[in-house]
């Protein structure tokens, strides 16, 4: 609601404001979908359909990476939009499948295969570095929830070995990990600020400047994009790159200020509190919330259609448990 209200004091032109408002309007689907997913069978069908769709994308990507006949024309890293999108969805699906493998032992091997396919795609094929981080964090969360301390130590060792193999035998993982270290060092030493990571730091810095200019209520919906145009910054990055600050927290701070940040975290904590009291879906939902919380440090996920639809569908499936219990 605050995003819509902030349209009235925004410095952005109407076209940008309406675009931002429409992106945020997707969240209005949540109460209707939660009501629709009160049926357990429908929840299962929706979740497994999403799982199979993401697994199919991962398989196509792997076939292209391995240069299987008939798949050579596919870019392994862009089967579905980009590595950024799959870098968010892939770890989420791998985590869900791993959880269901422990909860539904009758179909354990199916879920193990799904998880293995998506993990392989992330660690060997995908170039999204945030995907590496999300997968590692979700793997630790899964271990913490399902394994004893002794088994967790063993699982961590095995996962570390898998990452070691990926770094040493996957050209993509090796190159992307090394480039991250080089880009961080270049930004720190100010030898090259205009790298993928360097630009993200600059976007955040610019958002911080906008926030400090109007800290309480921010500069309004779409203000970041409008300010970039007005100040003529990041000229070489303008085409299709700067509709947001590539960081949801800084974007909210710049456009809705302290009030926006407080309300955003209040909504997130309220969702976490609700999920915590739904034991049947708690493990699954915690992974989704953690992925969303971490992903928003480097991307404005609420404004990115594939990721936010992925989040909305899954969180509504989990919250549908409330309606079923209320019947």
Any chance you could write out the topology, listing elements then pairs?
Elements: H1 2-5, H2 14-24, H3 30-36, H4 40-65, H5 83-103, H6 108-125, H7 129-146, H8 149-169, H9 171-189, H10 196-213, H11 223-231, H12 248-276, H13 282-295, H14 305-326
Report the strand count: 0
- Give the uncertain stretches in residue-range form: none
Q: Tell me the helix content.
A: over 70%
Report the principal-axis shape.
globular
Question: What portion of residues belong to β-strands?
Answer: under 5%
Elements, N to C (H/E): HHHHHHHHHHHHHH
Measured between the Cα atoms of the first and last residue, the distance is: 29 Å
**Based on helices, strands and strand pairing, what is the structural class?**
mainly alpha
Quaternary organization: single chain
Number of separate helices: 14
Would you write up a description of this structure?
The protein is mainly alpha-helical and 327 residues long. The protein contains 14 helices and no strands. Helix 4 (40-65) packs across helix 6 (108-125), helix 7 (129-146) runs antiparallel to helix 8 (149-169) and helix 7 runs antiparallel to helix 13. The radius of gyration is 21 Å and the shape is globular. It starts with a helix and ends with a helix.
């Amino acid at each position: 609601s605050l995003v819509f209200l902030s349209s009235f004091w925004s410095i952005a032109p109407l076209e940008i404001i309406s675009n931002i408002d429409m992106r945020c309007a997707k969240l209005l689907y949540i109460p209707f979908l939660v009501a629709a997913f009160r049926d357990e069978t429908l929840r299962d069908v929706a979740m497994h359909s999403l799982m199979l769709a993401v697994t199919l994308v991962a398989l196509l990507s792997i076939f292209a990476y391995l240069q299987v006949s008939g798949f050579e024309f596919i870019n392994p890293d862009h089967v579905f939009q980009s590595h950024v999108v799959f870098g968010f969805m892939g770890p989420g699906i791998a985590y869900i499948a791993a959880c269901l493998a422990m909860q539904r032992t009758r179909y354990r091997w199916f879920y193990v295969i799904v998880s293995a396919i998506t993990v392989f795609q992330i660690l060997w094929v995908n170039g999204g570095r945030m995907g590496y981080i999300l997968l590692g964090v979700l793997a630790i969360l899964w271990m913490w929830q399902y394994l004893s301390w002794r088994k967790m130590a063993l699982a961590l060792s095995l996962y570390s070995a898998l990452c070691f193999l990926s770094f040493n035998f996957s050209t993509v993982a090796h190159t992307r990990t090394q480039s991250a270290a080089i880009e961080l060092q270049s930004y720190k030493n100010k030898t090259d600020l205009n790298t993928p990571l360097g630009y993200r730091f600059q976007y955040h810095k610019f958002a911080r400047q906008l926030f400090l200019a109007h800290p309480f209520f921010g500069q309004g919906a779409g203000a970041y994009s409008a300010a970039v145009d007005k100040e003529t910054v990041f000229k070489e990055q303008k085409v299709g790159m700067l509709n947001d600050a590539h960081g949801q927290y800084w974007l909210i701070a710049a456009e809705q200020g302290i009030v926006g940040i407080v309300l955003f975290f209040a909504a997130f904590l309220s969702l976490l509190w609700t999920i915590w009291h739904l034991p049947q879906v708690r493990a699954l939902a915690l992974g989704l919330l953690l992925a969303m919380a971490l992903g928003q440090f480097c991307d404005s996920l609420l404004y990115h259609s594939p990721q936010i639809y992925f989040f909305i569908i899954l969180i509504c499936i989990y919250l549908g448990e409330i309606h079923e219990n209320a019947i």
